[in-house]
From TrEMBL:
It is an enzyme of class 4 (lyase). PROSITE patterns: AA_TRANSFER_CLASS_1. It catalyses: O-phospho-L-threonine + H(+) = (R)-1-aminopropan-2-yl phosphate + CO2. Keywords: Cobalamin biosynthesis, Lyase, Pyridoxal phosphate. Residues 68-340 form the Aminotransferase class I/classII large domain. It comes from Rhodothalassium salexigens DSM 2132. Its EC number is 4.1.1.81. It comes from the Bacteria. NCBIfam families: L_thr_O3P_dcar (TIGR01140). This is threonine-phosphate decarboxylase.
Length: 353
C-alpha cells in the first residue's frame, strides 16, 4: 500500500476554533435592515444564471437514490472532467462535506496550506489532529517538510493558478509532500489547469464543486477524484445515499450538456471583463479573482461595503486584507444597472459619512 494510503478513521476531539464568516449569510443581510429588497448578493462567487434543471421525474423525490442514478452521474462527470482512466470519483452533498471529512482519512501529521485561501480548509485539518501551517509559496511549502500539501487552484480569492506540470513536479521533489490535495472549486472555466486527468496517482486528490459553475449551490453536490483506495475510504465514511436522486439526475444532465457548458464559459468570460471595466471606472484596482468573481482593492473598502450594503448590494470583505473586496457577477441587465447605479451613489467621497 502506498505511503499516502488512508489509515483507519481517526477522529479526535476537535479543538476550539473561531467560526468562519462567509459572504451571503443572514448576518450580512441583517446588517442593513432598511436596504431595498430583494438584496443583490454578489458575495458568493456562484454563476448567477444557473443551469436550467428542467423537469425532474417525480419518483426521484419519492425513493432512495438508485445505483443507476449514481452510475449515470459518474459516467457524465468522468467525461466532463477528463478523469484519469484508473481514477475513481466519490460523491458528497457539497464539496464542503469533502473538505470536512478528508482530513480524517489522512494520518495526523504536519501539513501545509498555500494561502491565503478559502477559510474552511485549515480548521478542518486542525480538527482532525494535523499540525497546520499556512505558507505563501511553493518553496515555502517544501521547506516546511509537510507530508500533506493543500492548494486551491485557481486560488480563492486571488485567482492564482498553477499548471498541472508544476503541481505534479511537487510530488517528485526530494523534499516534496507525499500527498497533494487540490481544491478545484473554481476550475470549470479553464479545464486545462485541472489535475483530474492525473489523479490516478495515489498522492493526488482533487476536490470539485458542482454548484459554482452550474449556479446550483442549493443542490449540494461535490466530487472527490482520486485513486480507488482514497475514494473507497471516503465513500465508506460518507455512507450510502449521501447524494439525493434529484441531485444525481440534474448533475448528470448538466455535465453532459456540452452546448450549455461551452456557451456559459464564453458568457462568463465576457461578463468578467465587463465587471472589471465597471469596477475600474468606480475607482477600484482589480488585483485578481476568477471568472466567477473579481478581487479588487481600495483604501476605503470598508466604506464601500457599507455604502453598497445600504443600497441592497452585498460584497465580500476579508479580515486579513481589509483593502480587498470580492464582487461576483450580476445575473441580468437589471442587476448590472443596479450595481452601476449603486457604485456611483455609494462612492465614499460622494456621500456623507
Amino acid at each position: 500500500m502506498p505511503d499516502s494510503a488512508p489509515p483507519t478513521a481517526f477522529d479526535p476531539a476537535p479543538p476550539s476554533l473561531p467560526p468562519i464568516r462567509h459572504g451571503g449569510d443572514d448576518a450580512a443581510a441583517a446588517a442593513w435592515p432598511d436596504a431595498p429588497r430583494p438584496l443583490l448578493d454578489l458575495s458568493t462567487g456562484l454563476n448567477p444564471r444557473p443551469y436550467p434543471v428542467g423537469t425532474v421525474a417525480p419518483d426521484l423525490w419519492a425513493r432512495l437514490p438508485q445505483a443507476a442514478n449514481q452510475v449515470e452521474l459518474l459516467a457524465a462527470a468522468r467525461r466532463y472532467l477528463g478523469l484519469a482512466r484508473h481514477a475513481r470519483l466519490a460523491t458528497a452533498p457539497g464539496s464542503q462535506m469533502l473538505i470536512g471529512q478528508l482530513p480524517h482519512l489522512v494520518p495526523p501529521g504536519p501539513m501545509a496550506i498555500l494561502g491565503p485561501t478559502y477559510g474552511e480548509h485549515a480548521p478542518a485539518w486542525a480538527r482532525a489532529g494535523h499540525r497546520v501551517e499556512t505558507v505563501t509559496g511553493l518553496d515555502a511549502a517544501r521547506a516546511t517538510g509537510a507530508t500533506t500539501l493543500l492548494i486551491t487552484n485557481p486560488n480563492n480569492p486571488c485567482g492564482r493558478v498553477f499548471s498541472p506540470h508544476a503541481l505534479r513536479a511537487l510530488l517528485n521533489a526530494a523534499n516534496g509532500p507525499r500527498l497533494l490535495v487540490v481544491d478545484e472549486a473554481f476550475a470549470d472555466l479553464d479545464p486545462t489547469n485541472s489535475l483530474a486527468p492525473y489523479c490516478d496517482h495515489p498522492g493526488i486528490i482533487v476536490l470539485r464543486s458542482f454548484g459554482k459553475f452550474f449556479g446550483l449551490g442549493g443542490l449540494r453536490l461535490g466530487l472527490m477524484a482520486a485513486a480507488p483506495v482514497w475514494v473507497e475510504a471516503m465513500s465508506q465514511r460518507l455512507g450510502p445515499w449521501s447524494v439525493s436522486g434529484p441531485a444525481l439526475a440534474i448533475a448528470a444532465r448538466a455535465y453532459a450538456d456540452t452546448a450549455w457548458i461551452t456557451a456559459t464559459r464564453a458568457r462568463l468570460h465576457q461578463d468578467a471583463r465587463r465587471l472589471d471595466t465597471l469596477l475600474t471606472r468606480a475607482g477600484f484596482r482589480v488585483v485578481g479573482g476568477t471568472v466567477l468573481y473579481r478581487l479588487v482593492e481600495h483604501d476605503d473598502a470598508a466604506a464601500w461595503v457599507d455604502g453598497l450594503g445600504r443600497r441592497g448590494i452585498l460584497v465580500r470583505r476579508f479580515d486579513y486584507q481589509p483593502r480587498w473586496l470580492r464582487f461576483g457577477l450580476p445575473g441580468d441587465e437589471a442587476q448590472w444597472h443596479r450595481l452601476s447605479t449603486a457604485l456611483k451613489a455609494a462612492e465614499p467621497h460622494r456621500r456623507s459619512v
